[in-house]
Known about the structure:
Blueprint: H1 12-16, H2 23-41, E1 48-50, H3 52-63, H4 68-75, H5 79-87, E2 95-97, H6 98-105, E3 119-121, H7 123-134, H8 139-145, E4 159-161, H9 162-175, H10 187-199, H11 224-227, H12 230-241, H13 247-254, H14 258-265
Antiparallel strand pairs: 1-2, 3-4
Helix pairs in contact: 3-6, 4-5, 7-9, 7-10, 12-13, 13-14
Amino acid sequence: xxxxxxxxxxxxxxxxxxxxxxxxxxxxxxxxxxxxxxxxxxxxxxxxxxxxxxxxxxxxxxxxxxxxxxxxxxxxxxxxxxxxxxxxxxxxxxxxxxxxxxxxxxxxxxxxxxxxxxxxxxxxxxxxxxxxxxxxxxxxxxxxxxxxxxxxxxxxxxxxxxxxxxxxxxxxxxxxxxxxxxxxxxxxxxxxxxxxxxxxxxxxxxxxxxxxxxxxxxxxxxxxxxxxxxxxxxxxxxxxxxxxxxxxxxxxxxxxxxxxxxxxxxxxxxxxxxxxx
Length: 277
């Protein structure tokens, strides 16, 4: 994950705040300077703009765990200016210089920017954990990988530490397409994890776009399995079969019927182990 999402090319913020010198950013900066020069010549130049959008943006960042001092440092705006924007006495700033507004509005949210001890929204953390369970990772293995030996996943449903959110995201990136049986998980445990997730309607990694995982308003693609091509289905099924995964377990993990899986593999997958009578 990048430390900060940059403003688009062809904007003055990308030129002035992030020192981009591509043709599009140079053009945007040149047009701004020409416009300002004309306004100065006609006596219509207004170097100050409404402070409300910048203040709302800073407060939105703060609500997600970024402190105002951190925002000031990231933007290159003096801390005193940001403090006055938010808490000025007798009242917060009504207008601020346009370059100050540009710099503050150019700061985008990322959990990478938040201090380890700050609390952040737990939506993305839980979606990642549940997606891993949906493809066969037992919660006890996830907890162990996160350092919660013997304690299970002791996480709040609504808020988690930023450091925890980062660890879960790193684990998800490493495990979402890995075979659990190659990491010490027994096939029976994989099956139980898949059934547990399915009974609760938890979406697997294939149902989520990466940039939607942390968005509380986003929804999983419930038709994701139908949307992928036949070639992608075959590749995923054959990948699991190469580890000796049974037909039934493959079917549960990829969201297809066991008959369909058998048809793709031509009988090459192992049958599900029968329980002793």
